[in-house]
Write a structure and sequence with these properties.
It is built from 14 helices and 24 strands. With about 425 residues, it is of the alpha/beta class. The strands form six sheets. Strands 22-23-1-24 form a four-stranded mixed beta sheet, with helices on one face. The radius of gyration is 21 Å and the shape is globular. The structure holds uridine-diphosphate-2(N-acetylglucosaminyl) butyric acid.
Length: about 425
Amino acid sequence: MDKLVIQGVASLKGEVTISGSKNAALPIMAATLLTSEDCVIRNVPMLRDTKTMVALLKSLGKKVEFSKNKLTVTQPAALKHIADYKLVSTMRGSFCVLGPLLAKLQKAKVSLPGGCVIGIRPVDLHIKGLTALNAMMNFDNGYVIAKTKGLKGAHIYLGGVFGSSVLATANVMMAATLARGTTVIESAACEPEVEDLANMLIDMGAKITGHGSPKITIVGVKKLSGVNYKVIPDRIEAGTYVLAAAATRSNITIKGANYTHLMSLMDKLEEAGIKVINEKGIIHVKARKVIKPVSVATHPYPGFPTDLQAQFLAVMALAGGISVITDRVYPDRFIHIAELNRMGANIRREGTNAIAQGVKKLYGAPVMASDLRASAALVIAGLAAEGTTEVHRIYHLERGYEKLEEKLVALGANVWKEKA
Ligand code: EPU
């Protein structure tokens, strides 16, 4: 397996262009199952996760061409209803084929995704929402077996212990597009990725209102058509580069991102004394020598994203004081603390809080993380650290950051891949 070697301290400069959103692209790709007509999806990041979704769509009977960030999905033969363990277990996003398959075929057998290092990650809200739409859901041998005599619209409350669920909202919304009657989802996820999926479904002929708010209304239609759709930019990738600039006290320019999707991060950066200017969609980051300590708690959108918690903690590890970082979405998502401490950080965990006592310097070290965003935090720490950092298992980074090494090198970082 490859490792990423980083020679710090990096001084980043220049521009970086943000790729299409992974977490918007995955459910959008699943939504192509709702039509037998041709779909073209543009601005799809070429990542391990999107390639896994391509493999899953192919296994379900779609023909997919994927090159230069453009996906063309056609359906040469009948759809199949079984989503195999091998594909679903490697990536949770695959579970969102359940809603479309059920809506299109009235049956689906989809492997349960299981937990991962960031938490147990149950699917009860997906099951609850689809059951309310008149589906019978059973579990057998690690699979969800769903059947319906016809989906019917319903009034559904989809909030869970940790708030709304992104992929449960996506699954239920997709299924409801072809249900008989009207569905109202209360406590729906408001994430831009859910809004993007709704916009794509509307372009396919779905009748959806309220997307982007906690109450989404879907009036079922008989059929959805093909579509030509462009995926939104990846706000988490953009946030990761902003935080890399903050940690290395660099000035960089970020192109192609949507500033309004990053308001919660920008607010916290201002508190930390880092200047971020939005100039007609181009973001300029002007970091300062002294990073002020800032406490933050993650929440569903528009709150601070859990997917930037680890990277923010890497910056706070270098702040001039104590900060408390709380994860209210995934209370166990702190795998990166031990690795950051191996680089000289002084962070301790107390329950769902990471308490960081900022240090003057981080030092390069061999590190490893078992999750995508934790790995991104280690890359940020490596850029800011003195000496050589080796980030092992870059498999995780390849799941979510398109051309990471290339983009960092273009920003002036001394980074390369090596065989581990
Ligand atoms: N939850 C339940 N029951 C459910 C579903 C979720 O209790 O049926 C809980 C989860 O355990 C968690 C909270 O609800 O505590 C929110 O989870 P959510 O369902 O929103 O997460 P997800 O939809 O499975 C997506 C992203 C994650 C991102 C979360 C939160 C995709 C493919 N994944 O997951 O992205 O962290 O939303 O914003 O969209 C990543 O990109 O690194 C990543 C993990």
